[in-house]
Write a structure and sequence with these properties.
With 331 residues, the chain is an all-alpha fold. The chain has one domain. The protein is 80% helix and 0% strand. It contains 13 helices and no strands. The longest helix is centred in the middle third of the chain and has 50 residues.
C-alpha cells in the first residue's frame, strides 16, 4: 500500500494536474476574452482611437519590398503575395534576410553545440548539415506562412458573399460607394474588415475606386475577388445599377462556393495525406538530426550515401509535385 502513497508520485500527479488546469485556463481565456478581441477589425480600433486616414492606411498596409531591386525578385514577389494573404506586416526582404540568417546560424552553431564538427569531414556530412539548416531556416517557416495564408484566404472566401450582400444593401439604401464600404467594414469581421478597411483608407487618401480595388485584388488573389473587381470596373465604364450587377455576382459566387465546398469535401482526404506526406519527412529529419545526429553522420562516408540522398530528394520533390497535381482541382 505504501507504493500508492509515494510522496514523489503524489507530487508528480499534482504537477500534472496543475499543468492541465493551467493549459485549460489559458485556452478558456483565449476563447472567451482574447479571441473576441482579436476578431475586432483593426481599422475600427484605429477609428475609435481617433487616428487619421493617413495613420490608418500606414497601419493597415504592409511595408512592401521592391522586387526589381532585390537579388531574388521571384522569391520576393512570392513572399510578398503569401505574406499579404497571411495578414503579416513584415516586408518580404526582411523575412528573406531573417531566413538566410537563421539558416547560416543553424548550419554553423548546431555542429558546435552538438559536438559533431569532427564528424563533418566529407561532402556528405556537409550536405546533411546544410540540409538541416535549410529545413530549419527556410522550409519550416514557409510551411507555417503557407498554412496561415491558406487559412486566412479560406476565411476571406467564406465571408465574401456575406460582405457583398451588406455592400449591395447599403447601395440600395442610398449610401454612396464609400459609405457602403464603410458599412461593410463595420459589420464584418477580419479578414474582410481589414482588407476592405485598407480600400476605404485608400479612397479617403485619394485613390480612385478602381485603383483601390485593383490593389485589393493584388493582395488577395482569389477568383471571387477578381470577378468583383472586373464587375465594378465594367460598371464604372458602361454605367448601370451597381447593386443589380453585384446582386447577380453574389448569386454566382454562392453557387461557385457551393461547388468549391463539395470539391474540397471530396478531396479533403487527399489534401490531408499530401500535407502529411510533405511535412513529416522534413520534421522527422530535423528531429532525428537534433536528437541523434550520428544516425546520419555514421554513414556519410559510405560511397552509396550521396547517390542515395540525391535520389531520395528527387523522389521527394517528384512526389510533392505529383500530389499537388492530383489534389489541385480547379473550379
Amino acid at each position: 500500500m505504501s507504493a500508492y502513497f509515494d510522496p514523489q508520485l503524489i507530487f508528480l500527479g499534482v504537477v500534472f494536474l496543475a499543468v492541465v488546469l493551467l493549459a485549460e485556463g489559458a485556452f478558456l481565456y483565449w476563447r472567451d476574452v482574447k479571441g473576441p478581441q482579436a476578431r475586432i477589425s483593426r481599422r475600427m480600433q484605429l477609428v475609435n482611437a481617433g487616428a487619421s486616414n493617413a495613420e490608418i492606411l500606414a497601419s493597415l498596409r504592409r511595408e512592401t519590398s521592391k522586387a526589381s531591386e532585390s537579388l531574388l525578385p521571384s522569391a520576393v514577389r512570392y513572399l510578398e503575395t503569401r505574406l499579404s494573404q497571411a495578414g503579416m506586416k513584415m516586408p518580404a526582404n526582411r523575412l528573406l534576410s531573417i531566413m538566410v540568417g537563421v539558416t547560416a546560424v543553424a548550419g554553423f552553431v548546431f555542429p558546435l553545440v552538438g559536438g559533431i564538427t569532427g564528424q563533418i569531414r566529407t561532402a556528405g556530412g556537409l550536405m546533411i548539415v546544410l540540409t538541416f539548416a535549410v529545413a530549419i531556416g527556410v522550409v519550416l517557416p514557409l510551411l507555417a506562412i503557407n498554412y496561415q495564408a491558406n487559412r486566412r484566404m479560406k476565411q476571406f472566401e467564406a465571408q465574401f458573399p456575406i460582405a457583398l450582400d451588406i455592400f449591395v444593401r447599403g447601395l440600395r439604401a442610398g449610401y454612396p460607394v464609400t459609405g457602403a464600404l464603410e458599412l461593410l467594414v463595420s459589420e464584418t469581421p477580419d479578414p474582410i474588415a481589414t482588407e476592405f478597411g485598407i480600400v476605404v483608407a485608400e479612397l479617403n487618401y485619394g485613390y480612385s475606386l478602381r485603383d483601390a480595388l485593383a490593389n485589393l485584388a493584388d493582395r488577395v488573389q482569389t477568383a471571387d475577388m477578381s470577378m468583383f473587381v472586373v464587375s465594378v470596373a465594367i460598371q464604372s465604364e458602361t454605367g448601370g445599377s451597381l447593386a443589380e450587377i453585384l446582386d447577380s455576382l453574389t448569386r454566382v459566387i454562392r453557387e461557385r462556393s457551393s461547388m468549391v465546398m463539395k470539391v474540397r469535401a471530396l478531396s479533403s482526404e487527399g489534401k490531408m495525406t499530401g500535407i502529411l506526406l510533405s511535412a513529416l519527412p522534413v520534421m522527422t529529419f530535423c528531429f532525428m538530426f537534433v536528437t541523434r545526429p550520428t544516425f546520419y553522420l555514421d554513414v556519410v562516408d559510405d560511397p552509396w550515401f550521396m547517390p542515395g540522398a540525391i535520389g531520395v530528394a528527387f523522389l521527394y520533390t517528384t512526389g510533392i509535385l505529383l500530389m499537388r497535381q492530383m489534389i489541385a482541382i480547379k473550379v
